[in-house]
Amino acid sequence: MRLLRACCTGVMAALLLPAPSSAQGCRIPAVIDAQFVQAAQNGAPAPISAKAAIFRIDVATRTTTELRAGTTGMTCSLIPDESKAPFCADKTAWPWFVAAFTGQSKPPNTEPGVSYMAQGGLHYETATGDIVMEWAPETKSVAEPPHWMLMWPFDAAASGIPTKPNPAGVYIMFAGTPYAHLMVYQNPAAMK
User: Fold this and answer.
1) CA 185, 141, 86, 174 torsion: positive or negative?
2) Is residue 118 within 8 Å of residue 191, measured between CB atoms?
3) What CA–CA distance (Å, rounded) separates 86 from 117?
4) Cys-Cys with 19: which of 9, 67, 179, 187 at CB 3.0–4.6 Å?
5) In Å, how far from its chain's centre is CA 138?
6) For residue range 129-146, what is the model confidence (pLDDT) as tens digits?
7) Residue 189 CA, distance from chain mean position
8) What digits encode the pLDDT tens for the residues 48-105?
9) How far is CA 86 from CA 19, 119, 158, 189, in A?
10) DSSP 125-149
11) How far apart are CA 73 and CA 67, in angstroms?
12) Sign of CA dihedral 82, 88, 93, 94
């Protein structure tokens, strides 16, 4: 926020106009929001994302901000980590993401939800190939291909589904946690 405020103040001073007392009086946030909206829409194919709601998740304040209303029941955003990967989620999967990124102990959904990451993303992996929810000094960032997900706490032991990425392209991410979900390495843009 300080950088944004300094930027706005500098731009306004350069134009010999009085500087606003806060960043809210500057037009730069609208430009940033427009770029966020455009980037978030890349989380799913256009027929899914064009009329989806767009929200920003703020990890620090544990809040969400609506940047654009939607009409389809889908919500798109950017993963609030180093990847800034776009994703789109249905009405059941969206609260799952909000819970995950706002520090809730478990997701609130009571039925499975679908989400898309048409541009791929990244995950954090230990030296033994286990996928964990947060970066740590002993983890590495691993790029993921375009995929879609079924947001539901699948049980690896009961289902026999692997818990690590594999050539078949399907696995349970975050196995053994309330945030376990099915990853399907299939490009949403190629689905008909």
Assistant:
1) positive
2) no
3) 6
4) 9
5) 23
6) 888 888 889 999 999 999
7) 18
8) 999 999 999 999 999 999 999 999 999 999 999 888 999 999 999 999 999 999 999 9
9) 34, 7, 31, 14
10) E-TTS-EESS--TT-EEEEE-SEEE
11) 15
12) positive
